[in-house]
């Protein structure tokens, strides 16, 4: 009987270690997925900011008159006399 108990103890310890490792792997996989989602959101934000920086650089290179004309066209919807204006079908 004593030999049987000695054989069971290593099996129980092994099972507990395997269970612990399985739970740990599941938790880490969950954390990896959350971090990947956060990374993707940050990449998206970086792209948006990069585009905005490029736009501001372009606007910074415009003369005052060119900037006023650009603003009047894009924000106020003005156009020059005789100019043909194209609009997107979605209303923009």
Account of the protein in words:
It contains two helices and no strands. With 92 residues, it is mainly α. The protein has one domain. The mean pLDDT is 88.
Q: Could you provide a short overview of the structure?
A:
This protein has 2 helices and no strands. The protein is mainly α and about 90 residues long.
Following the backbone from N to C, one meets helices and strands in this order, namely HH
**Mean pLDDT score:** 88
Quick one: overall form? Answer: rod-shaped
Number of domains: 1
User: How far do the termini sit from each other?
Assistant: 85 Å
Alpha carbon gyration radius: 32 Å
- Beta-strand residue fraction: under 5%
Number of helices: 2
Give the structural class: mainly alpha
Largest sheet: none
Question: Total strand count, please?
Answer: 0
Oligomerization status of the protein chains: single chain
Low-pLDDT runs of 5+ residues are none
Percentage of helical residues?
A: over 70%
